[in-house]
Amino acid sequence: MVWRQGIEELRARTAASVPGLVRVRRLPPASRMMTTGWRLGLAVGGWWVADRRLGGAASRAGVSRRVRHAFERLGPTYIKLGQILSAGEGLFPPELVAEFRHCRDQVPPEPFAAVRRRVQEELHAPLAEIFRSFDPEPLAAASIAQVHAAELRDGTPVVVKVQRGAIDELVRRDIAVMSWLAVRLVGRLPVAALANPPALVEVFAETIVEELDFRLEAQNMLDVAAVLEHFGQQALVVPRPHPTLVTKRVLVMERLSGFTWGDTAAMAAAGIDTADALRAALVSLLEGAVLAGVFHGDLHGGNLLVAPDSRVVLLDFGITGRLAPAQRVALLRMVVAATANDVPAQVAAMRDLGALPADVDVDAVIADLGLDRPPIDPTTLSIEELTAEVRALASALLEYGARLPKALILFVKDLLFLDGALAVMAPDLDILAEIAGLVTYFHERHGAAVARDLGLDPDAPPLVDLGPLRASLGLGEGDGGFTVRELQERRALMRRRLARHRARAGAAGTAGARGGPR
Description:
Blueprint: H1 7-16, H2 18-22, H3 30-50, H4 56-74, H5 76-86, H6 94-100, H7 112-123, H8 127-130, E1 131-134, E2 140-141, E3 145-152, E4 157-163, H9 167-185, H10 190-195, H11 197-211, H12 214-230, E5 236-237, E6 241-246, E7 250-254, E8 259-260, H13 264-269, H14 274-292, E9 294-296, E10 304-306, E11 312-314, E12 320-322, H15 325-340, H16 343-353, H17 362-368, H18 383-399, H19 406-425, H20 431-454, H21 467-472, H22 484-513
Parallel strand pairs: 5-11
Antiparallel strand pairs: 1-3, 2-3, 3-4, 4-7, 6-7, 8-10, 9-12, 10-11
Helix pairs in contact: 3-4, 4-5, 4-6, 5-6, 9-11, 14-15, 14-19, 15-16, 15-20, 16-17
């Protein structure tokens, strides 16, 4: 496979280019800056006039809505950023995440003439010499590329991913503009204060520059497939990249099909256990991340199918999580410490992952963040108390210089996606029993490797302390299990309470603006 020659050097060069891309220039690219400044200026100006005085969540919702509209008008790079933000539930302000879920999944496709020309230029042959058929209508058109169904000359069904024209230069100019703007947004907008714009732009740049070279994506496919094979995971499948038809801008790969992720009715009718499919995706994510240091970094409904034989199909490997050996061990330590309720070990692992400064005082972090306090059932708090807790936590983390490395963001984002899928695909799953089962699985299958990495006694049973989780769910020691359905009901209760609180706050603000009741 000629395209694999020097692939690791290519990956290293690509990563090394990021600091230059995000370097804040004295002046950004003029024409793109004017367009970007105009669109974002209108968004921020509208928020300043109409939404800023509302304060709190209402203000953040207003600016999120206006910025999302601006992103859609600014085109593919910003739409891609919006889609990444939309998958960051728990990482970014909820108003921002909710709003950017409305980002278009589809962008207008390029004309087929341009696609034909690019494929022929990249593969150095007329289309008819390589393909028996090539559907001019794309299966999907996304921000970076579009995908077409085709057949090779021997009749093999394939999918052809074709990069958009001039997207490379557009992305680089947009990153330069984003970097210039990001440092000027710190502390000026409610969303920016929580999301740390410069760090967000850096992670975005690290992610998107790899997506611009399909040779790296094809190698990602092979690497994830090798991890699955190493751990004997037969419940997942990765499409094969073609051994010769891969270039920087064109990727020909095996065509796989299956049920849409989350279509539980169709899967149930086909005799597929959706809980097993979800469990397989979770186990493979954990094995890849904490034991191999390589995992699919962009799990969402559009990148997953369930084949008729019940295997989970992984698609789109443009974003793949990779951890250096020390990072991988730190993540493993964090996961093991979480199941054992070892708070100091968790904070130390976060430090070793790069999420906290290397010289941070672990005991001080625990005290300042209140991690040494007994866990609280959030449904027992008032909205004011809960909001104050979250605000204090965010403020303390920022004061410590907390940041989220790319690999950790991707790992947490994947976990949050699978957590959300539980409500649709396995609502009656017992959460506590499932956690205990995962710990048992890893101890039986990988206990020796985990013990070796962490310096533990390989013969000692794993420590599992679900007490804090039970307390946060309002469960006593004598209570039974807790299903996903019950968890969703608790979350719905919190959302309703928060909505009522916002409505009351909005009404009070309106009354105050009018001079109060008469």
